[in-house]
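ZP: hey, is the magnesium ion complex queued? I don't see it on the tracker
AM: it wasn't, my bad. submitting now with these inputs:
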Amino acid sequence: LPRGQVVLEARAVTRRFGGLVANNAMDLTVHAGEILALIGPNGAGKSTMFNQLSGVDTPTSGQVLFQGAPITGRGSRAIARLGLSRSFQHVRLLPEMSVLENVAIGAHLRGRRGVLASAWRLDRAEEARLMAEAAHQVRRVGLEAHMFDDAGSLALGQQRTLEIARALASDPSLLLLDEPAAGLRLQEKVALAELLRKLRDEGMAILLVEHDMDFVMGLVDRVVVMDFGQKIAEGLPDEVQKNPAVLEAYLGG
Ligand code: ADP
Ligand code: MG
């Protein structure tokens, strides 16, 4: 997509759980070619928001638009096929399958080309196409030296990178990443940040939830801060870090 184009828009998204308002009239916009961080203290409503955006859950009220089309209430698979790809907080790889196979399975299961209906009965041409696409994504994220290694044998940073390759296999225009830097060593974080910048510069829209503030502030273009289900600040990393409401939310506990 052309850089700057709106990819995802949340309008007044509200999610109640009984008396608790986990997301309260949240507005959010993500553009092609930007990395946006959604941050906030524990319990602020970040994961709930991710669930509303990716169709894992349905808002009590409000609307979500993906590339201009309403997707509120559509299932997560349908939304994934439109081009919204999500990684989860905990690694969900098949440890005894190779790096290449893990990505190929992602391409198969989340493909936009209707291969889902054929389940596992792929013809030779289709299988070759899937494998070529998967190999392309493995190279794109820099894991080509591990193409045929078991996913379970990789270091955590490489497993996270592999998850991103798998998310890329469905040719998304938006990546939602839930705590991609959690548990990574410094060198792994540096490599991850480099990969995300590369994808952004290719025009990908990236929305991430992340607790590691050094990682966030050095990487992202824009930050949205949540507390008690609401947006309390939005802006450039430097601005947001100095915002009194943000300092209060983090320190005032
Ligand atoms: P964060 O990801 O920012 O830490 P969450 O979105 O997980 O916050 O949670 C926001 C609030 O909503 C919390 O108070 C949490 O307990 C509550 N919550 C989240 N999911 C559910 C649910 N399925 N049922 C009831 N309450 C929930
Ligand atoms: Mg969470």
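AM: back. Residues 46-47 surround magnesium ion (ligand 2) (CB under 6 Å).
ZP: great, adding it to the tracker
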